[in-house]
Amino acid sequence: xxxxxxxxxxxxxxxxxxxxxxxxxxxxxxxxxxxxxxxxxxxxxxxxxxxxxxxxxxxxxxxxxxxxxxxxxxxxxxxxxxxxxxxxxxxxxxxxxxxxxxxxxxxxxxxxxxxxxxxxxxxxxxxxxxxxxxxxxxxxxxxxxxxxxxxxxxxxxxxxxxxxxxxxxxxxxxxxxxxxxxxxxxxxxxxxxxxxxxxxxxxxxxxxxxxxxxxxxxxxxxxxxxxxxxxxxxxxxxxxxxxxxxxxxxxxxxxxxxxxxxxxxxxxxxxxxxxxxxxxxxxxxxxxxxxxxxxxxxxxxxxxxxxxxxxxxxxxxxxxxxxxxxxxxxxxxxxxxxxxxxxxxxxxxxxxxxxxxxxxxxxxxxxxxxxxxxxxxxxxxxxxxxxxxxxxxxxxxxxxxxxxxxxxxxxxxxxxxxx
Amino acid sequence: xxxxxxxxxxxxxxxxxxxxxxxxxxxxxxxxxxxxxxxxxxxxxxxxxxxxxxxxxxxxxxxxxxxxxxxxxxxxxxxxxxxxxxxxxxxxxxxxxxxxxxxxxxxxxxxxxxxxxxxxxxxxxxxxxxxxxxxxxxxxxxxxxxxxxxxxxxxxxxxxxxxxxxxxxxxxxxxxxxxxxxxxxxxxxxxxxxxxxxxxxxxxxxxxxxxxxxxxxxxxxxxxxxxxxxxxxxxxxxxxxxxxxxxxxxxxxxxxxxxxxxxxxxxxxxxxxxxxxxxxxxxxxxxxxxxxxxxxxxxxxxxxxxxxxxxxxxxxxxxxxxxxxxxxxxxxxxxxxxxxxxxxxxxxxxxxxxxxxxxxxxxxxxxxxxxxxxxxxxxxxxxxxxxxxxxxxxxxxxxxxxxxxxx
Lengths: 419, 407
Prior knowledge:
Chain B: Its cofactor is pyridoxal 5'-phosphate. Chain B: It comes from Anaeramoeba flamelloides. The complex is a heterodimer. By secondary structure, chain A is an alpha/beta fold. Chain A has helices at 2-7, 20-35, 77-90, 98-101, 105-118, 129-140, 158-165, 180-189, 213-222, 245-248, 278-287, 289-293, 299-314, 317-336, 355-367, 397-414; strands at residues 52-53, 62-64, 122-126, 148-153, 171-175, 195-201, 226-230, 257-261, 272-276, 347-353, 370-371, 374-375, 385-390. Chain A is globular. Chain B is of the alpha/beta class. Chain B has 2 domains: 22-51 and 302-399, Alpha-Beta Complex (Aspartate Aminotransferase, domain 1); 62-300, Type I PLP-dependent aspartate aminotransferase-like (Major domain) (Aspartate Aminotransferase, domain 2). Chain B has helices at residues 5-20, 62-75, 83-86, 90-103, 114-119, 121-124, 144-151, 166-175, 199-209, 231-234, 264-273, 275-279, 285-300, 303-321, 341-353, 383-399, and strands spanning 37-38, 47-49, 107-111, 134-139, 157-161, 181-187, 212-216, 243-247, 258-262, 333-339, 356-357, 360-361, 371-376. In chain B, strands 3-9-8-7-6-4-5 form a 7-stranded mixed beta sheet, with helices on both faces. In chain B, strands 1-2-11 form a 3-stranded mixed beta sheet. Chain B is globular. The termini of chain B are far apart. Chains A and B meet through helix 1, helix 2, helix 3, helix 4 and helix 6 of A and helix 1, helix 2, helix 3, helix 4 and helix 5 of B.
């Protein structure tokens, strides 16, 4: 059928003209990336996302320890059914931004549920948390009319950094990672502004460390600042009832704005949101560019997400299982002699320090049926390469043991274990 | 809450100002599927939708819906991963190949939306350094997402040329000869007027001054141009454009998703560097499945495209005959020019009472004095539905003195 289509015109990919200089330069840059050993190749998965997956090029299934599939919901039959049912009832897509003809009753329902879950006033949906972050700072306080300072943790997610870069005339300040003294200094400096916004990941994705949100709120109160927390690596599974690092730090009722994703623990299909005070959300609906100029969320995603929040509002079973799995894995790996950054989060960085070692280690792990990824410079600082393990509630004890055994085997092989 | 008093105060005032200016956006709530005819909360009867990007009527197409559901069954709900970690399934690479083949280009890269494709484009296409500098030359009326993409590329020399003004483009290209690389970026179809970029002339200039051409075909892919390959094809320049950014969230089913398609070397670079690609979730299986099916449909037959063309011609002709001010064109975006913002909003309200759902656009979305109702025709509109809309427009037009009563 494709060949029929193409036979009807001259089927060749020869462009009449290309910018030779641009092409040459980009080709060269690609080569440099290869030479530096930082080329990202994509493995192709031919199954659903799950604790156990089929990867093209490997004979047997492998165990996946590097997905954001924290609650194991990415192939949940219940969520899949909800998505399908919603396609039947509400169609495939809206082909519209929200304010023209892109709001269905289910969108409002989901927004209400997310607000309810977080005990906040209102929510605004986005295609992704990447967009939620991208649209927040510019859509919030008009930096042309008021003086705004944004104070951002040095290790915040790329999407927050981009959002801040799009905030125009706002004063952009960075504080050292989790450094409360530095944050305080910057807040003092920013007192000449009309509005201050402190923004931080709730859980930082490379180390799994938790932001000191209680102290941040204390400082925010003292120096009159808004607090925004990105809970992408926490919503649904971190904190006593899965309400995020803010809950974990006992300050859920003190944080002003939470940005988070439906594309990690909550089913992993797509979607993001900002939740907070109604007045802030109202403002974003009027001004946030990704909200105003990009398609509304697809019904299937909305339907699956409504089901997820239904589940989460009823029980903490999945989150409890994840906690159990996480504790088990951390204990065993520490006992085995691995260097693991202490913590409670299911993100577990196995420190290997050298980039080349991290990549080789990951390859050896794959041979033993464990799918993990090595992270090295520039994603993490030089000399801090690691394998970042992500535990799921979907992992069985046998699967955890298999991974641990493989780690120990390869660890001994590579001489990484502490004596 | 920490309750930053100043922030609350300032934002409340900002909201008041928006209300006072009459530019506050309310959301109507739809309780049915998206279609040519929809159910809106607060209106008793169904209304006809003339303001969706549902150009081919595929947003509630049964075949696409089945494809989405089937792909959920085979490939799950979501991947919970960026592409390069564990977020690439065989269906993703298949869709990318299909998009490339459709456009007669080498490779494609998927994104959550064309908004992300555009914001991730300029910074991702080239690493800038002392030795490698970039000039981006962008049409003044380009989409917000292109503007944001350009803004994120701070190290580049960022130039704007007057809307579709080839002389101004040429002068900017001359200015940009200092830089090592030049990119010209333009919407293929501009969304407020439905006008078509002069892509052939742009490619001529690109050749002359050694520049890459990127065209955003969001309001064209699937239905504009002889085989639906966009304004580039319409202008006979499909094999001259280097890169196309477009969406699956308009004509191709409207669920979500975007892409950049073009020469492999550029796509490879975007895979290594484009931030929304590296740091945001991969496209979900349902959407990949539906989009693949949508491309198959439009590659198999141009029936829907031709129906849309027919509907568009009919509507344009009738409205011009009735005396409405419509810029000449062939695109299904049809701006009914009304002058003042207040008129546009009142007109839209009156249309809704007659069962026709349209939206008035006024400042700042469009320039002062150029307020309009922007109609979007769909292949899904029947002749009866088109006539109903035309009659309603005429009735309200006479009522409000926008057209003469003798027409």
